[in-house]
UniProtKB/TrEMBL annotation, chain A:
It comes from the Bacteria. Residues 16-208 form the ABC transmembrane type-1 domain. Gene3D superfamilies: MetI-like (1.10.3720.10). It comes from Fictibacillus enclensis. The keyword Cell membrane applies. Keywords: Cell membrane, Membrane, Transmembrane, Transmembrane helix, Transport. This is Methionine ABC transporter permease. NCBIfam families: PRK10782.1. It holds the Pfam family BPD_transp_1. GO terms for cellular component: plasma membrane.
UniProtKB/TrEMBL annotation, chain B:
Pfam families: ABC_tran, NIL. SMART domains: AAA, NIL. PANTHER family: AMINO ACID IMPORT ATP-BINDING PROTEIN, METHIONINE IMPORT ATP-BINDING PROTEIN METN. PROSITE patterns: ABC_TRANSPORTER_1, ABC_TRANSPORTER_2. It comes from Fictibacillus enclensis. Belongs to the ABC transporter superfamily. Residues 2-241 form the ABC transporter domain. This is Phosphate ABC transporter ATP-binding protein.
Length: 220, 343
């Protein structure tokens, strides 16, 4: 039986809101974690300003392990942890925890790459100026990589939109949940199309704004 | 001002050891412009980086103003580095910051007041001739302009020493000259000791007072620029000198050399200082019964002293030629016979 569109729009609206909340909150948290780890991965590597190979190797391994686990498995595997953090393993809040665990290491890698793109000569110049490691990171490296970081975060956000749709599979709510519950399991093609179109619009909008902001910051 | 004492730097990569610096000792006086020249891989870059401890010597000491850099605590080292400006081959400017902010960065980092920074940076912009460009970004500037920004940035903390890492190697000859002029002015007006490393001998000729020639991690020759240019002792130094003085004989002369005999002899006459202005050749021709034919030569300036290098053929009686050579060899003039394979 197809859905009644006069009332179903409300569900769609709710689901869109859930997706935005899931992506927004997990992006915020995973960006903080990811940027932090990304910075540490750069400055502790060999020859860099705070070289510390044990720290680098351990973090590097953790990031690799977490990045190799498919999201759908990760989501199930960390249910005990999720329950510990938010008290439940079902619903939007419960989906946010695995999203953070998934996106954090991903963002860390992207940030690492952005920072490594900076000419090592600039770091050398900062050292020659007598900059502290802290100043080198926050006054030199991050501002230099800013526009590239925005693009990285855009990529990560879109990754999160995709992953959040998968969270629907375990009752995480959001547009993905709707697409699976109505479109896939109940063969309601209309719902499927509407949700997918909404996701496309969301991703397009994110990518375009990311590009615009990044270009503005690059000031060419 | 800067003193290298038996400085050795070894890089280890796996089993291999590379000695970038091998027991280097020399001293740079205050207010001097000192040049270190060498081919790539000679160790110049490591040497320069040992001064502000971007690289740590494996053994030996580098003293700047009497202080051993390696003995300083991290905090003292950062303070000391503000006293040692550095400019780079590829400028290493912050691309996301304006010219003004690039120059101001070292001042921001040491927490200067905004108003003081503004005044200082504007003065520096004027000094390096970029007053109109403060609001631009580095990618809107030419190479020469970028290096001027680099120089202004290095000067912002009022250093006593300026390290130049191949500072003109990425620039065209004309821009190179203007940057060298600027460095000269910095040396004169601010009395800043300048250490330059380069593979371009003409940089040394144009602004340095002393020079060290490096090869395979060692300083193989050093002295005043005049000494090294007029009498290079090692093969490498000779090659560097001839790269700018063009005192290698062209092939067309080799035939003449092959055909010289007792009555046609070829000599190289090296004039230095006041002797360069003397009408030596016409005197020879008048006083002795020889003909003088100039085959090759040029006159240049080293450290504001004229320096001439002529290859001439003396034609005449053997004895007369010998007397003429003896006459010419008095004073500041050096006369050497040129034979094939040993020009």
């Amino acid at each position: 039986m197809p859905v009644d569109w006069s009332t179903f729009w409300v569900d769609i609206l709710d689901a869109t809101g859930d997706t935005l909340i899931m992506v927004g909150v997990s992006l915020l948290a995973s960006a903080v974690i990811g940027i932090l780890i990304g910075i540490i991965l750069v400055v502790t590597r060999k020859g860099h300003i705070l070289e510390n190979l044990p720290v680098f190797n351990v973090l590097n391994a953790i990031v690799n392990v977490l990045r190799s686990i498919p999201f759908i498995i990760l989501m199930v595997a960390i249910i005990p942890f999720t329950r510990l953090v938010v008290g439940t393993s079902i619903g939007t809040a419960a989906a946010i925890v695995p999203l953070i665990v998934y996106a954090g290491p991903y963002i860390a890698r992207l940030v690492e790459n952005s920072l490594l793109e900076i000419d090592p000569g600039i770091v050398e110049a900062a050292e020659a100026m007598g900059a502290t490691p802290w100043q080198t990171i926050f006054r030199i490296l991050l501002p230099e990589a800013f526009s590239s970081l925005i693009l990285s975060l855009t990529t990560a956000t879109i990754g999160l939109v995709g992953a959040s749709a998968m969270a629907g599979a375990v009752g995480g709510g959001g547009l993905g949940d709707l697409a699976i519950a109505y479109g896939y399991q109940r063969f309601d093609t209309d719902v499927m199309i509407v949700t997918v179109v909404l996701l496309i619009i969301l991703v397009q909008g994110l990518q375009s704004s990311g590009n615009v902001i990044s270009r503005k910051l690059r000031r060419r | 001002m800067i003193r290298f004492e038996e400085v050795t730097k070894i890089y280890e990569s796996g089993k291999n050891q590379v000695k970038a610096l091998n027991n280097v000792s020399f001293e740079i006086d205050k207010g001097e412009i000192y040049g270190v020249v060498g081919y790539s891989g000679a160790g110049k870059s490591s040497l320069l980086r040992c001064v502000n401890l971007l690289e740590k010597p494996s053994s030996g000491r580098v003293l700047v103003d009497g202080e051993n850099m390696a003995d300083l605590s991290p905090k003292e080292l950062r303070k000391k580095r503000k006293n040692i400006g550095m400019i780079f081959q590829h400028f290493n400017l912050l691309n996301a910051k304006t010219v003004f902010d690039n120059i101001a960065t070292p001042l921001y980092l040491q927490g200067e007041k905004k108003s003081a920074i503004k005044e200082k940076v504007n003065n520096l912009l004027e000094f390096v001739g970029l007053s109109e460009h403060g609001h631009k970004y580095p990618d809107q500037l030419s190479g020469g302009q970028k290096q001027r920004v680099g120089i202004a940035r290095a000067l912002s903390t009022d250093p006593e020493v300026l390290l130049c890492d191949e500072a003109t190697s990425a620039l065209d000859p004309q821009t190179t000259s203007s940057i060298l002029e600027l460095l000269k002015r910095i040396n004169k007006e601010y009395h800043i000791t300048i250490l330059i490393i380069t593979h371009e001998m003409n940089v040394i000729r144009e602004i340095c007072s002393s020079v060290a020639v490096m090869e395979k991690g060692k300083v193989i020759e050093k002295g005043s620029v005049f000494e090294v240019f007029s009498r290079p002792k090692t093969e490498t130094a000779r090659r560097f000198v001839s790269s700018v003085l063009q005192d290698e004989l062209p092939d067309s002369l080799k035939n003449i050399l092959r055909n010289q005999d007792k009555n046609h002899q070829v000599f190289r006459i090296v004039f230095t200082g006041a002797s360069t202005g003397q009408p030596l050749l016409s005197q020879i021709a008048k006083k002795f019964d020889v003909d003088v034919s100039v085959l090759y030569g040029h006159v240049t300036e080293l450290q504001d002293v004229p320096f001439g290098n002529l290859v001439v053929q003396l034609i005449g009686d053997e004895l007369e030629i010998r007397r003429a050579v003896f006459f010419a060899g008095q004073g500041d003039v050096e006369v050497r016979e040129v034979i094939e394979h040993a020009s």
